[in-house]
Amino acid sequence: MSHTPTDTPDSGRSSVARRTVLGAMAAAAATPGILALSSPASAAPAPQAAALPGGGDLGPNVIVVDPSTAGIQAKLDQIFKQQETAQFGTGRYALLFKLGTYNGLNAQLGFYTSIAGLGLSPDDTSINGDVTVDAGWFNGNATQNFWRSAENLALTPVNGTNRWAVAQAAPFRRMHVRGGLNLAPNGYGWASGGYIADSRIDGSVGPYSQQQWYTRDSSVGGWSNAVWNMVFSGVQGAPAQSFPNPPYTTLDTTPVSREKPFLYLNGSEYRVFLPEKRTNARGVTWGSGTPRGTSLPLSQFYVAKPGVTAATLNAALTQGLHLLLTPGIYHLDQPIQVNRAGTVVLGLGYATLIPDNGVTALRTADVDGVRLAGFLIDAGPVNSNTLLEVGPTGASADHSANPTTVQDVFVRIGGAGAGKATTSMVINSRHTIIDHTWVWRADHGTGVGWDTNRADYGIRVNGSDVLATGLFVEHFNKYDVQWFGERGRTIFFQNEKAYDAPNQAAIQNGSIKGYAAYKVADSVTTHEGWGLGSYCYYNVDPTIVQHHGFAAPNKPGVKFHDLLVVSLGGAGQYERVINDTGAPTSGTSTVPSTVVSYP
User: Fold this and answer.
1) Cα-flanking dihedrals φ and ψ of residue 565, to 5°?
2) Residues near 479 by beta carbon (within 8 Å), at least 6 away in sequence
3) Is residue 77 over pLDDT 60?
4) Distance between CA atoms of 82 and 427, rounded to whole angstroms?
5) CA 244 centroid distance within chain
6) Fewest beta carbons less than 10 Å away: which of 182, 333, 422, 468?
7) Which residue in 485, 304, 420, 378 sits closest to 112, CA to CA?
8) Is 50 exceeded by the pLDDT of residue 45?
9) Which of 550, 284, 257 is nearest to 432 (CA)?
């Protein structure tokens, strides 16, 4: 998403210092202002490689504070000043707040900055103040406020309402706002978000200029308006179903959900909490005491630092450790291979994986209960066939009791430099839950062009019984989403077709004008989607015509609810919404064409 693709990003990336694994474990412990955990003892010489240590300090880009820490506001301001406009920079930060009450803070969040409390409940860490995202850096336009997050905090906003004016890849999870929430920038400029889960907003949520939004398993005191596509599942206080006027799509419950793993403190010990799976979920998980689930001590994680090799990460996994990726850039010359059931790969502060030589960044085996969460995959300059693979080709095991979850895992091709990937994310394992992803072929930044950051396909789902809750996929050269598995379900989809198609011929799909944003394979007999939108903005050749946003077999078991297509300012047009159904967009009016039910 970007309505102004001419902004100038930071040029290039500074090199990441290479350190040995054990040296990295010990070196950062001396950094002032960082909470250091126990450092591993030196390994005795041995004829074979020593076992990698679990636990360790969290490194220099994790800032841990408690209510008595001096200079918290100054530190927040320093990081924000550095990150406010660094859309394609290399800085990565996680701001972690110990349990207690903090007064008079305004944590403004820039790019690649995460803020989180360290309690089991958001109410364990209270800020009398704000966690703010605004768009002053971009003249009041919030459509590029990507890659930042807030989790596990209670806020009492200074003026009664907290401002969270974000675009894609900016989750608001496990938050308690003791007041209202404003999702628009100051001045009500353009905004294109967003995602809330497992949160309670005591007051009303005002989306104002937000084009679309998805809220899951939460509680709101009210919701004031809608532009194009507001979707709710399992939200207490959500507005009633009324698409397209106003465009509210409301499901009483979420069919299956399992909240994202999170770091917390048990006394002075770090642990990672693993929330349990819920079916027909509604409301927050933390409202009546301790959330349900299990936890792991940090000693069972390999705490990775930038500069570590993929071989070392795989050695840690083989050894039986989970992975905690601390903030920074990780270059990979081979895939991270997750083979063990129940493995957790958790990133902090938008830890970023870059496959340097055309490899896949991460693969999982066809096993139960893998949890992938909180990291960004940035395509490298050599084309990767895939960037993330959940399960091998042909995976068929039943994971209904303990599915794999992919949560706040974001993919980018181009923008920070030329990158290429044929298919970004491939889901082969059955019952996988994709819970909030933004898979983005960049439309602005460095290394951007129809063939420069070539990426034909965004997400391909081969496994059956896959559920997507909060699917954002944009700008791919061909299909943005392809779904081959049976009994797939998507709740909320946001898409823009590629801006930069040079002409009609470049997007021609056989006899069809353009590739659908969301394509269900002709072989599929059962599929369902709710609240799906596709937009076009063919600014290179505004005469391009896209036949439809959605394509699916015309079968009784294939059902869609609340679909829309929009031409942004008349730069390109849709002839239909889904298959051959729905009115065309026309003229320069940015007005959706909708289909309430299909077939």
Assistant:
1) -130, 145
2) 456, 457, 458, 515, 516, 517, 519
3) yes
4) 36
5) 26
6) 333
7) 378
8) no
9) 257
Q: How far apart are CA 563 and CA 573, in angstroms?
A: 16
pLDDT at 592 exceeding the cut of 90: yes
Closest CA to 389 of 414, 374, 370, 408: 370
Q: Pick the closest to residue 437 from 390, 487, 499 (CA basis).
A: 390
The letter for the amino acid at 549 is G
pTM for the model: 0.92
Quick check: 35 pLDDT over 90? no
**Do the strands 200-206 and 262-266 form a parallel or antiparallel pair, or are they unpaired?**
unpaired
Backbone angles phi, psi at 570, to 5 degrees: 80, 10
Alpha-carbon distance of 111 to 149, in angstroms, equals 9
Active site residue 496: yes
pLDDT digits (tens, 9 = 90+) for 439-474: 999 999 999 999 999 999 999 999 999 999 999 999
On whether the CB atoms of residues 62 and 348 are closer than 8 A, the answer is yes
Residue found under tokens 């997507």: 468
Give the C-alpha separation, 375 to 362, whole Å: 11
Mean pLDDT of the chain: 92
Structure tokens at 563: 């679909």
The CA–CA distances, whole Å, from 500 to 192, 381, 477 equal: 19, 19, 9
**Best CA proximity match to 230, nearest among 579, 531, 19, 558:** 531
Q: Tell me the C-alpha to C-alpha distance, in Å, between residue 214 and each of 38, 207, 275, 472.
A: 40, 11, 21, 10
Tell me the H-state helices in 157-260: none
SS (H, E, C) 459-514: EEECCCCCEEEEEEEECCCCCCEEECCCCEEEEEEEEECCCCCCCHHHHCECCECC
Give Cβ neighbours of residue 451 (< 8 Å, ≥ 6 apart).
none
Residue found under tokens 């983005």: 440
Q: From the CB of residue 268, how many other CB atoms can be counted at a distance below 10 Å?
A: 8
Report residue 505: phi and psi, to 5°. -60, -30
Map tokens 């102004």 to a residue: 4
1: confidence class by pLDDT, cuts 50, 70, 90 = low
Task: With residue 77 as reference, give the H or E element that holds it.
Answer: helix 72-83
Q: State which amino acid sits at residue 599.
A: P
SS3 of residue 122 by DSSP: helix
* Rounded Cα–Cα distance for residues 308 and 314 (Å): 11
Q: SS3 of 591, please?
A: coil
Classify residue 299 by its DSSP letter. Answer: G
In the chain the first and final C-alpha atoms are separated, in Å, by: 29
Tell me the C-alpha distance between 550 and 338, whole Å.
Answer: 34
Helix %, strand %, coil % of the chain (to 5)? 5, 40, 50
- Sheet strands (E) in 282-360: 293-297, 301-304, 322-325, 329-332, 336-338, 344-355
Distances (CA, A) of 366 to 258, 276, 336, 373: 19, 20, 15, 18
**Cα 401 to Cα 369: distance, rounded to the nearest angstrom:** 9
3-state secondary structure of 4: coil
pLDDT of residue 419: 97
What is the C-alpha separation between 546 and 573, in angstroms, rounded? 6
Which helix (H) or strand (E) segment holds residue 336: the answer is strand 336-338
